[in-house]
Write a structure and sequence with these properties.
There is one protein chain. By secondary structure, the protein is an all-alpha fold. The chain has one domain. About 85% of the residues lie in helices and about 0% in strands. It has 6 helices and no strands. Helix 4 packs across helix 5. The radius of gyration is 15 Å and the shape is globular.
Length: about 130
């Protein structure tokens, strides 16, 4: 199993689960985004964990040749940038997360997670 397939086997089911969760429990996820701005320790912990995961993935998989490789690389860089944002600019990151909740973006994020999760799961286990 190559690194793209391995990372897809991690990202795919997680994205599917998050997408289903956002779709079925929109209020719960909206509350998470609203509360994140108020809890500095949670925001910092999220940022540090995301930075570490993002750095690890970017170091091990920064490949831009095929669609699955591009998707996995974008997820790695996105995770790194999200973590950096929560560590370096926590107030801005928290207010942005709260704005997602106010702008009713959770259904959009749910659909994106479901599509991405289905594609990566298919690639990892069936392609």
């Amino acid at each position: 199993m190559d690194s793209t397939q391995f990372l897809a086997s991690l990202w795919g089911p997680v994205a599917l689960a998050v997408g289903v969760g956002m779709f079925t429990s929109k209020g719960f996820y909206a509350r998470i985004y609203r509360e994140l701005e108020k809890d500095a320790l949670a925001a910092l912990t999220l940022g540090l964990a995301a930075m570490a995961a993002g750095i690890a993935q970017v170091i091990s998989h920064n490949v831009w040749n095929t669609l699955p490789q591009i998707v996995i690389s974008i997820l790695g860089w996105g995770t790194l940038l999200k973590g950096l944002m929560f560590v370096a600019a926590p107030q801005w990151a928290g207010s942005l997360a709260n704005s997602w909740s106010r702008w009713n973006m959770i259904p959009v994020a749910s659909v994106i997670c479901l599509i991405l999760g289905a594609y990566l799961t298919w690639f990892a286990f069936l392609a």
